[in-house]
Amino acid sequence: MNPSLKLFLVLIISLEISFKANLWANLIIIISCIIYLLAHKISPKNLLLLIAVPLLAAIAMFTSIYLASPSKVIFAWVLFTRIYAFVFAGACVTQTTTITQLAYSLEKNFKLPSKFVYGTLAAFNVFPKIKEEVIRIQVAGEMRGLYLSFWSPRLYFKAILAAINWADDLTQGMTSHGYRENQPRSIIQKIPLTKKDWLIFVAILTIFQPILFLT
Amino acid sequence: MLKINQLSFNYQKDSNILENISLQIFPNSFSLLYGPTGCGKSTLLKLIAGLYPKFGGQITTGKIQNSFKQWGMVFQNPDKQFTMQTPYQEFIFSLENLQLDEKQAKKRISLASRETNTQDLLERDFITLSGGEKQRVALAIIIAMDCDLVLLDEPFASCDPYNRKFLLEKLFKLKQEGKTIIITDHNLSGYQEMCDQVFLFKNKHRIDVLNNKAKEEFFHQPAPPQLSFQLPKDSKPILTFENFSLKQGDKTLIANQNLQIFPGHGTLLSGANGSGKTSLFKALTKLISYQGKITYQQQDISKIRRRKYLTQVAQVFQNASDQFLMVTVKEEIKLSQSLSNRFSTAEITNFLKLLQLDQLLDHVVYSLSGGQKKKLQLLLMMIANPNILLLDEPFTGLDKQSIHIISNLLRESFLDQEKTLIIISHQSDDLDLLCDYHLTLKDRHLQYITGGLLDES
C-alpha cells in the first residue's frame, strides 16, 4: 500500500478509537494489525518488544480505572486494549515503510512542500549521527581528562552546539547539490499511488465504521 | 565568466577576511587557489558559490558577477556534503533538483558512478564509507549534475595517493569537456600540466595571478624527499596486538594480526582509502569491538576502564570539531589548562603565538578556518599530554610552514619525552621528523616497511 495512504488510514482509525470506546473494535484492530505485521515478516524480537514495552503503561491505565471504579471493568479493558491498538497500528506504518519512502510519498503523491520533506528527512538522517556525537563528545572529554556523565549539562550543551552547526551544514550541502527553495523538482523515484490503494483505503474505513459504532 | 571586483568580506565586524580583492576567471579554465592556512581560500569559494553571505558573514564592498548557470561544490569535509542516507538517494535528490526525468537521471547516474568507480558504493550507508570514498561520491554527483562551474575545497585531504591521482585525472577530463574548475589545495603535485591559472593568496588584500614564468617557478619545487624508515629493533613494546581481527559490517579489514608498537617513537600508519586505518584507531580507543586482544603496558585494554585508559591513549580526530567542548578558543584553552598542568601559562601563550592563534582567542571555535581548527586541536591534545597520541590526518588544511611548526612541537612534547605517536597521513612533508617506523595496512595485514609513502601507490 502507498506509504502516505497507510499513514492517513492509521491516523484516522486511531483518532476514531480515541473518541469512541469500543472493546471489540480495539481487539479487531490489534488482531488485524498482528496478522498484517506477520504477513510482512516482522521479526519475533520486534513483535515481542511491541508487546512488552507498552505493557507497563497499559497495566497502569487498567488498574487506575479499575481501582477508581470497579464497576467500570469493561471501560478499563477498553483503555488497556486502546494502547495496544495505537501501538500496533503505528507499527504497521513504521515496520513496513522507511521514513525515506514515506517522505518521498508525501512529497510526490500529496504535494507536501519539498522544504519540509527534505528538512525532516535530513533531520532523521542526522539521528544516528547525534547518537555517535554524544559518545564522541564523551570520548573527546575523557581524552582531555574530563569525565562527562550522561546527565552532564556540558555534554548536551555541546551536542546542541553541534546540531546547530549541522543544520547550517545541511542547508549548504543541499544547496551545493542544486536544491533551491520553492523551485519545482522532477520525480525520478516514483512512489506508486494506485486505484487499488485507494480502494483498500476506502474499503477498510467502510468496514470499520459499523464495527466501531454498532458492536 | 566570473568577475570579482573590489570585494571585501567579513564574518565579524571590522575584521575583514578578504579586502578589496579583484580577480577574473574565464570559462573552461582550471584555476588553483593557493595560500597559507586561514587566508580565505574556502571563504572565496563559498562566496563564488553564493553560499556566503547567504549563510553567514557580509560583503562590505564590491561585488561578484557570476554568469555560470550551474555550479557544484565539493567541500573540504565530506560529512557536510550529503543530506540523504545512501549515495544513490543523494544522486536522486540532486538530479530531481535539476528537474531531470527518470531516463536521463538513470543514464547520468550509471555514467558518473562508472567514471568515478563508485558503483559498489551506491547502496551503502554514508556512515560506513571512508573519507576517500565519500570524496569519490561527491565528485560523482558533481559529474552527474553536469555543472559548468566546479568548485573544490581541498577535496583530496583524506585521499590516498591512488585516489588523489584518480580524481585529478577525472577533473582534467571535466576541463577537457568544457567545464570550469576552481580548486584549493596545499599539495601541488599533479597540477602543473593541467592548471591554467594560479592565484596566490599573499594576504587579505592581495591575491597574485601568476604569469607563465612565475607559474613555472612556482611548480618547480624540489621533489619531496623519498622517505625511508627503519625496522623496529626495540625489545619492549607499549602496545601489542594478539590474534587481532577487525571487521566493518561483513568486510574484514584486518585479519589475525600479531603486532607490537614501540614507545618513544613515531610510527606512520599508511594504507589505501577504506583499508581500515581510522577503524584501527577506533579499536585502539575502545570505540568499536574487535576480535583478539590488545594490550597496553601488558594489560588487556578491554579490562581497563575507558575513562582511565583514554587519558593514557588519546587521539587527534580527523574532523577537528569533534575535539572541541567549548565555544571560544579562549575557553578551550582554559578548560585544558584546568585539567592538566603540563605547560605553564607562559608556555601556552608562546605556543598560541607560534601557531598564530593568539589573535583569535575570542573567536568561536567553529568559525575558525579548517587549518586553524587543526592547529588548536593539536595544541589542546599537547596540553592533555597522553602517553600515546594517535593522529588521524593531523595536517589537513595546513600550509608547509604550519606543518613544520607542529611537527617540531610534537617532537619536543612527545617523542623527546619518550612518548609515542601513531600517525595516519597522506602528506609526506616532515613525516621523517616525526616517524621512525612505517606500518602499512595492505591486504588485511599490517607490516613494518622501510620504504616511504610513494612506494605503496
From TrEMBL, chain A:
InterPro entries: ABC/ECF_trnsptr_transmembrane. Keywords: Membrane, Transmembrane, Transmembrane helix. It holds the Pfam family CbiQ. The keyword Aminoacyl-tRNA synthetase does not apply. CDD domains: EcfT (cd16914). It is a multi-pass membrane protein. It is found in: Membrane. The chain crosses the membrane at residues 23-39, 46-68, 74-93, 198-214. This is Energy-coupling factor transport system permease protein.
UniProtKB/TrEMBL annotation, chain B:
Belongs to the ABC transporter superfamily. It comes from Lactobacillus colini. InterPro entries: AAA+_ATPase, ABC_transporter-like_ATP-bd, ABC_transporter-like_CS, ABC_transpr_CbiO/EcfA_su, ECF_ABC_transporter_ATP-bd, P-loop_NTPase. Residues 2-231, 239-457 form the ABC transporter domain. It is found in: Cell membrane. The keyword Cell membrane applies. It is a peripheral membrane protein. It comes from the Bacteria. It holds the Pfam family ABC_tran. It is an enzyme of class 3 (hydrolase). The keyword Manganese does not apply. Its EC number is 3.6.3.-. One of its GO terms (molecular function) is ATP binding. This is Energy-coupling factor transport system ATP-binding protein. Keywords: ATP-binding, Cell membrane, Hydrolase, Membrane, Nucleotide-binding, Translocase, Transport. Its main location: membrane.
